[in-house]
Write a structure and sequence with these properties.
The protein is mostly helical and about 80 residues long. It is built from two helices and no strands. It is elongated and about 65 Å long.
């Protein structure tokens, strides 16, 4: 819980750990360690699982890009 950006964030993290400790029946320090481990696992999975899931859902592009004369973008002509 060290390294909080603000005092409010620091107190929010303490409250979250305390509420989890009440639910789990453990100490707030153990609950904070549990939350830290969960966050670390999410960050570890984020870099590996997201691109694989994204690559499977991509569809091939069926249309060719439009020529410049077909664009209707008057705002591009302004100075």
């Amino acid at each position: 819980m060290t390294g909080a950006a603000s005092l409010a964030e620091h107190y929010r993290a303490h409250r979250e750990a305390f509420e989890l400790a009440l639910q789990m029946g453990c100490t707030p320090r153990e609950a904070a360690r549990h939350l830290r481990d969960q966050a670390r696992a999410r960050r570890r999975l984020c870099g590996t699982a997201a691109p694989v899931a994204l690559a499977e859902n991509l569809d091939p592009i069926e249309q060719r890009p439009a020529e410049f004369s077909q664009w209707d973008a008057r705002w591009m002509m302004r100075d």
